[in-house]
Amino acid sequence: MSLTLSESPGFTEIASDTFDDGNAATDVTMKQLNANAAFAAVRCEQFWGYYRNGETVSLPVSAADAYQYQRSELIYTHSWYWMGSATGPCNGTQTPPPRGAGSGSGTLLGAAADVNQLTGVVSTVVSYFGGGQQQNTGDGILLVVTLAQRMR
Amino acid sequence: MITPASQWSSANAAPLKMPIYAFAVGAEALYTTHDLTRFGVTGAPAYSPWLTIPTGASQSIDIVQCTSSIGELQCEVLDVGGAVRQFVGATTLVGLTATLSVGYPGLSWAQFVPLHTYTVYKINPSDGYTSFIFVCRDPQLLEKTTIYLHPENGGLLSDDNPWYVCGSPIDVYLSVLLFAVGLPASAVDLAWLQQLNGPAEGLYYSARPFLFRLTESFQAKQFLETEVFKPSLLYQVVLNTGQLSLRAPKPPAAGASPVFTFTQDNMTVLPKMDRQPLMNEAVWQFDSGGSDGSSGSDYGSYNTYVEADSILAFGRGDQQFRVDSKGLRTPCGAFWWSQWVSRRLFRRFAGGASSGSGELRGGAPVYNIEAFLMTLPVWTGDYVAVTHPRIPDVVTGNLGIAGRVMEVIDREPDYQNGKMTYKLLDTGLTGLAPAAVWGSGTNAFKFGQGRIY
Fold it and tell me: Which of B206, B343, B445 is nearest residue A29 as measured by Cβ atoms?
């Protein structure tokens, strides 16, 4: 069963002396505690999807409370899914995309992939060597995992 | 509640008494209604006994919209031998602090109690020019200032030079008054505001729901009332010392302790009764321009609360509580905050269906009370008790109420005729226990010993 919150909790720092003996125990404090506990549950979330060269990792929305993440709250990690071409846009699909043919000819020379940590733009380069020269292509499909951490 | 010296209280409680009023205009002049020396008042500065008994200044609170009226005090001073005319013509008085005080024969000047500490607004001669009328307004007048400069750098407020204000409602209130309006710290009731903001009250100490990004000029009073007070159910009162203060939508943690009891002995007529409108729906919009307030003027979050018991009992109220907040932010806890405030609203105005002191069976009762002058220490925002054998009890249907705890939301003096008029709001505080308190030692949690009010 998935975690569902009816409200976005937000974080409220509760000063350590709030619970000193002699202070009032009020409904405000209880609500803050409840919100902070809920916040802690969704503070870090992970999302994933397939992307090809040139696409931008979409801003995720929490399935728990529909919180819309901002770019500054995200970091990315990736792994190769396919070094050939993509047959169409991927844009974060979670359905394994079809594997297209490689667009270069010759021998596979090398491959590089990156997800820009500031912008979320995916870039892939797959290089071939044939006919005495190097050919760089934009082939490749990555499985990108987004690590989301709410900043407040 | 005005807290005078015991001698003043004794003189005020006497069945036969003669109040002496004194009107001071800065340190420039002191006008009194009586010859102080003749009536045994010692230690008074130089004075002129030319003041006619003033009507007084009222203060009225809209408890749901969280607005407060600006009080106006008119003091008429007889122009004996043209002295006042010459004084007014030779001295700049507008803008000075004016204080109306009251005392009784035989008291020392130091025991006189200030009733209103206002600012001189204008001075006009009366019809026939036999006297001059000093028109004074309460310090909320200073909040009518339009803020257009950034308090921190002096530049114009704009998209390129926004003023970020964040924190609890008390923090924002103090930031606007002290930094933007430029009032001195002595102009606000700092001790109480710090207590209200502190851990002992447990209300706002950890609550920091507001993050304003102010890029346009704004009027301080309007901003505070619509953007800070209403989303927090706070309202502003002007104390008799002229200090600005706030009252929270719930009693102090120690409980709603009445400072005065109205009875058939100090009321002059049977109170008129009315009801506040039922409020059982609250609509909130917040996250203006996105949760970080970075751009735009639309609202990112929309939330509604309804009091189901109240709607089942009474149907939908004819008014909705609506807040369109530019400062509440989801990351700062706007959801729990709006839920808490709505709960406080329903607790007071949804008809008592969920209150702890019995069904009010409708909107919160309001009592218009006329009372003797001796009740004048009672102040707007005070909790008072009402005991009267002839007032219908709306909770039980019996005749007579005893010790009903109510909140003063309107205070209208009539010093000329020696009577006071109050509007008292009954939101079902009677019998409500004070807040539970954190314990110490091995029995640290004591929720079982009291209610979280």
Answer: B206
